[in-house]
Design brief:
By secondary structure, this protein is α+β, with helices and mostly antiparallel strands. The protein has one domain. The strands form 2 sheets. The chain has a 4-stranded antiparallel sheet with strand order 1-2-3-4, with helices on one face. α1 packs across α2. The longest helix has 12 residues.
């Protein structure tokens, strides 16, 4: 797959993966299902909203189903957060995270594991 290609079909999972442009950060789509909230919002606003709803964010944060890493990136920026443990089992999703310019800090942030 070319490095700049942001959509592909995986024979092993039998799923089609792509990044869908929004007014802010791209959304992840897997086989026609968008993995981010996009109705009346966008992935960036949604990630900020999730953290605001949580209230005080500190210590160790668990981000399951990490996807493109938006919530993990923002959580790691919080001053009182020591580390963010992320779990994403789909290697294709992590591949897209590596290609998305909005997820690049996800792969370089020391607080993320």
């Amino acid at each position: 797959m070319p490095e700049d290609k942001l959509q592909f079909y995986d024979e092993n999972t039998r799923k089609f993966y792509k990044l869908v442009e929004t007014k802010t950060w791209p959304a992840l789509e897997i086989s026609g299902i968008i993995m981010h909230r996009v109705k009346d919002t966008d992935p960036k606003t949604d990630a900020y909203t999730k953290l605001r709803i949580m209230g005080r964010v500190e210590g160790t944060v668990l981000d399951s189903c990490t996807g493109l890493g938006y919530t993990a990136i923002l959580a790691a920026r919080e001053e009182k957060v020591d580390k963010v443990i992320t779990i994403e089992k789909d290697e294709n999703v992590l591949l897209l995270a590596r290609k998305s310019p909005f997820s690049k800090s996800f792969l370089r942030t020391p607080k993320l594991r």
